[in-house]
Amino acid sequence: MRKSLLITVGIIITLFSLGIVLIPWFRIILYVIYSPLKEETNFLVLGLDKDIQGTRRTDVIMFLSVNAKTKNIKISSIPRDLIIDGKKINSYYQRNGLDALIKLVEGFLNKKIDRYAIVDYDVIKIIGDEIGPVEVYIDQPMKYTDYSQNLIINFEPGLHNLYGEELLAFMRFRKDFRGDLGRIERQKYIIEQLLKTALKKDIFTLSKTFKKVFDMIETNVKTSELVYLAVNFRNGFNLKNISFPVKYDVDGNIYPGDLKNYREAFNGEKKEENSFNFYILNNTKTQTRTYNVNLYYMWKAAGFIPEKIYNLPKLSLKEDTVYVLDESVNIQTVSNIVKVVHPKRRFAIKYAKDHLEEYYLIIETLSSERSYINFPIDFIVILTG
Fold first, then answer.
1. What CATH number corresponds to the domain at position 283?
2. φ, ψ (nearest 5 deg) of residue 53
3. Contacts of 76 (CB under 8 A, 6+ apart)
4. What are the residues facing 45 on neighbouring strands?
5. How many domains does the chain have?
6. Does residue 210 sit in the same domain as residue 285?
7. b/e string for 78-113 if b means 16 or more Cβ within 10 A?
8. What does the alpha-carbon distance between residue 109 and residue 375 come to, in Å, rounded to a whole number?
9. What is the reported pTM?
10. Which of 66-80, 104-118, 299-313 is the most confident on average?
11. 44 phi and psi angles, rounded to 5 deg
């Protein structure tokens, strides 16, 4: 009798122990088999800056569309300096509340936002410390101090392994010629690097990190949904950055641009603007490597990455020009692109087939300099002056 009692107690203890260990894994397996999310789920992520005299602005406004079936993640950052109703959008959350901001962003995209997350910068610091170091390439000197926000930025160009505080400083830097657009580009880059770093970590490290930051995040995302995403995207994903379209006024203020193409890019109905294949030819008086590097990052910050930038020293051209080679590309679309990157320049935009003599002269000149274009391409941008 005593022996059978001990066996029974032993079995109960064993089952209880197994339950403690295995129940979380049963739940994870269940979330892998059964998705708690729709095939496509749209997220709004807001990053709040420090509270300064009762004011907290959204330094980050980011939309993510996550497709659980295709493993595609489309991401777009809305510039914090975007003018809405006469004021910058970064004050919209505090003035009008979360629901109003969600409706505003839904109007930009014609898409319903399913989930939201509001975080402050301390969350980024904790995540960076827990899963870091995060490998980051810095392309220019970054130096800036703002004692009111306890922000000190001091980076030299090169490859860096960054943890929380430094990671946050890199993301927040905006005192270069690219301004807010450059900061958006760095946000996208850091998010991609964080995702790549996180996917290399074991689930226990990720769970520990999540527990540390969960109480610091205001969100309607469920734990089961996070588990599902972490497990199903662990073996890889496709990340696409879609630039928010902007237009400038004469004072340099930015406003929403062509939302039609923006919405089509998210719906997959049209070739995304930043997927164009194009070259830039530098026919200015400043044909230096530094100038061309800055030129590259100006375009990249706006979401358009050139195949190559070549100097064009043997010709003296009179006007900024774009030669469009793909007849399916709309000239107005190209015009919108160059206005975003070079708002003060005035481009002549032409189909190359209608100006073959001048176009061939440029190609022959490039070839004589051993600068070759890998066709087919969509267009060629020429800068003068």
1. 3.30.70
2. 55, 45
3. 62, 63, 64, 241, 242, 243, 244, 262, 266
4. 62, 117
5. 2
6. no
7. bbbbbebeeebbbebbeeeeeeebbebbeebbebeb
8. 34
9. 0.59
10. 104-118
11. -115, 125
Rounded-to-integer distance, Cα 217 and Cα 207, Å: 15
- Domain containing 291: what range? 276-383
Tens-digit pLDDT profile for residues 335-363: 989 998 998 899 999 998 888 888 888 98
What does the alpha-carbon distance between residue 243 and residue 376 come to, in Å, rounded to a whole number?
24
Comparing CA positions, the residue from 101, 98, 95, 94 lying closest to residue 51 is: 94
Q: Which residue has the tokens 């850091």?
A: 190
- 19-40 pLDDT, tens digit each: 333 334 444 444 444 456 778 8
Q: What is the phi-psi region of residue 4: left when phi exceeds 0, alpha when psi lies from -120 to 50, beta otherwise?
A: alpha
Q: Please list the helix, strand and coil fractions of the chain in percent, rounded to the nearest 5, in that order.
A: 45, 25, 30
The torsion angle over the Cα atoms of residues 35, 37, 43 and 46, rounded to 10 degrees, is: -80
**Of 263, 274, 268, 271, the residue nearest 301 (C-alpha):** 274
What is the average pLDDT across 316-333?
89
Q: Which two tokens stand for residue 25?
A: 């894994």
28 within a domain of the structure (yes/no): no
